[in-house]
Amino acid sequence: xxxxxxxxxxxxxxxxxxxxxxxxxxxxxxxxxxxxxxxxxxxxxxxxxxxxxxxxxxxxxxxxxxxxxxxxxxxxxxxxxxxxxxxxxxxxxxxxxxxxxxxxxxxxxxxxxxxxxxxxxxxxxxxxxxxxxxxxxxxxxxxxxxxxxxxxxxxxxxxxxxxxxxxxxxxxxxxxxxxxxxxxxxxxxxxxxxxxxxxxxxxxxxxxxxxxxxxxxxxxxxxxxxxxxxxxxxxxxxxxxxxxxxxxxxxxxxxxxxxxxxxxxxxxxxxxxxxxxxxxxxxxxxxxxxxxxxxxxxxxxxxxxxxxxxxxxxxxxxxxxxxxxxxxxxxxxxxxxxxxxxxxxxxxxxxxxxxxxxxxxxxxxxxxxxxxxxxxxxxxxxxxxxxxxxxxxxxxxxxxxxxxxxxxxxxxxxxxxxxxxxxxxxxxxxxxxxxxxxxxxxxxxxxxxxxxxxxxxxxxxxxxxxxxxxxxxxxxxxxxxxxxxxxxxxxxxxxxxxxxxxxxxxxxxxxxxxxxxxxxxxxxxxxxxxxxxxxxxxxxxxxxxxxxxxxxxxxxxxxxxxxxxxxxxxxxxxxxxxxxxxxxxxxxxxxxxxxxxxxxxxxxxxxxxxxxxxxxxxxxxxxxxxxxxxxxxxxxxxxxxxxxxxxxxxxxxxxxxxxxxxxxxxxxxxxxxxxxxxxxxxxxxxxxxxxxxxxxxxxxxxxxxxxxxxxxxxxxxxxxxxxxxxxxxxxxxxxxxxxxxxxxxxxxxxxxxxxxxxxxxxxxxxxxxxxxxxxxxxxxxxxxxxxxxxxxxxxxxxxxxxx
Length: 803
What we know:
Belongs to the CTL (choline transporter-like) family. The chain is built from 27 helices and eleven strands.
C-alpha cells in the first residue's frame, strides 16, 4: 500500500501497530504476564511463612541487651551474669540524636538492679556514715568500690569518674535504668530551701539564693542539662502559701513541703512555660545544637528556646503549608497559560547569570594574576578556602567552565527551540490533565501508606530473623590504655571443663565463671578477662531467610512504586485519548486503579523483579567489596568499582525503561517485554525530542518547586516579623525553616505526579504523530497548539474540534 511505503520511507519499516487504535480501552484488555504474577504471589506466600517462623522462634529482647563501657553484655557475659541492667553515670548526655552513631559519652556499668532512691554525693557525703556512702556508690568495678575506705578516696574516685557523682530514682526500661521524674519533685528539695510564702520570696534579699541553691543541687546531679528542672523547681518554690498568724512554728516548718504541691496562678504560668519546652525534646534539640554551637549550657538554653518556638508557631506552620498546598494546585492550573514565559525567562536568566559569572571570573583572574600573594599555611578549612579563591588558576578554570556551559546551552536553545516549544505545549497539556483529574495529586498518599507498611513488615521480619540462633562467646582481654600492648596483661588460668579455653577462642560464660581464676589456689575470679558475647550464629535456613527477606523488601517496594506509575499512566493516557476532553469519565482514576489490579499486576511484578535482581547484585558487590578491603588489592578494587558503576548505570537505565514500559502497557495493554520494546523503539525514533522534553520539563518543575518553597518561607518570615502582637518568638528562623523544608517535600510530591502526567502525554503524543494523519478516519488527538507547532491539522468539521 502507498501508506506502508510512506511509513517505510519515514521509519525504515512499516508500523507494527494496529492502525485502528484509538487509545486505552479496558474492554479490549486481557491479563498480562500472568506467570510472573503467580510467581510473585508464591513468593509473598513464602515470605509470609518465613515471617511466622521468625516471630515464633525469634526473641527481640536479644536485640536490646545493653552493653557497658567495657563492652560486656549485661546479664550475658561471664563477669556480669547476675547484672542485667545498665546504669548511666550521666543520663542527660544520652539524649542526643547522634548517640546511635557515636554512643553515649558517659560511663556505663552493669548493675543488679536500678537505683530505688536518689543519691547526691555533694549533699550527702557529710550526712551519711562511711559504710552507707560506700553502699550507695555505683562504680565501674566492684573491686574498685571495695577499696574505697576513706572519704578522700571516694571523692577522688568520683572526680576521676570511676564512680557516679549522683543519680535519681530509676526504673528499668529495655534493661536500662531511666529516671523516674515524679511530679512530686518537692521531695527532692530540702525543707530549709522552701520559702514560707510568696511575699517572703518577693521581699527577701535571698530569694535568688533559694533558687540558686536548688539549681546547684541539680547541677551537681545533672551537669549542664539541669536548666529545665531548675525552672520546674522555681515554679514550685514560688507557690503561694496562705498566711496565718495563728499557726505555730512547728506548723510553719511542716507546711512548706505540703504547700509546695499546691498550684497557684503565678506558679501555673511558669509551669505552662515549662510544659512548652518539654524536657526530652528540649534536651534533644539542645544536644543537637551543641555540635554546632559553642558552650553546652548555651546550646541547651538555645534548644529549649527552639522547642518553645516550635510549640508556639505550630499553627502558623500548618497554615503556611495549607497555603503552599493551595498555591501548588493553582500553579499547576496556571501552567497552561504561563509555562512559556516562565521557561523562556528562566533560560534567559540562566544565560545572563552565566554571562555575569564569566565576567566576574575573568576580572578576578586578572586581579590575582597581577597581584603577588603568599598562601595561608594555617591548617584549617577557612585558610584552605582562602587559598583556593586567591589562586589565579582557580578563576581561570572557572571562567573556562562557565564559558563552555554558556556556549553549549545557547547552542542547544537555538537548535532545539522547536522541541522546547513542544515541551512547553506538553507541560500545558499536563496542567490540563492534572487539573481535570485533581484526585491524582493526592494518589501518592495511598502509595506512601503501602510503602510504609512494606518497610515496617520487612524490618520486623529482619529483626526477628536476626535473633534466631545460638549466641557465640569468645574469651577476650579488656583494653587497657596503660599497658604497652593496649590490652590487659592479666593472666587468667582455666581448669576443669574450661581447661582448653584460650584468649580468642570459644567459651561458655557459666563454665568460664566457675573455672577461670587469676589465682587458682585462692579462686580469685578473672577481672580483666571475660567470656564475652561475639555474635549470633544463624542456622543455614535462617541465613537464607535473611537474604529472602532483603530480596522481598526490594521486590515489594519496587512493585508499589510501579503500581503507582501504572495507575497514573492509565489515568493520563485515558485523558489524552479521549477526543473531547470534557467527556473524560469522572472516575477515571478509580477505573485506572481497577484496570491495573485486574489486568496488569503481572507486568508490574515482572518489571519490579528485574529492578530487584539488579539491586541485589549491587548489594552483593558492596558486601564483597567490604570483605576484600582488608586485602588492599588495587586490581580487585578497580574491578569491583567498575562493576558497581556498571550496575548503577544499568539500574538507572532500567528505571527509565520500566517507567516508559508501564506507560506503553497502560496505552496498549500488552505484556512487559512487548511494552518495553515498543517504548524503547519509540524513544529511539524520537531521541532528540525525548532529551529536550525530559530536560526542559525537569528544569521547569525544579523552578516551580523553588518558587513555591521560597514564597512559603518569605511569606512566613514577614508574617511572624510583622505580627508580634499575635506571636512572640525567640528566633523567627525556626518556623521559617520548618515551613521551607516541609514545603519543598510537599511540592516535590505534587510535581512528581505532574512529571508522570507529562511523560505519559509525551509518549501518547509520539504515538499520535505516528499513527494518525489528521484525516477524518485517523484524526490527531493532540491539542491545537501541538498541531500548530508541527504544522498539522485535522480535516474535521468544526463541531468535532478537539479543542
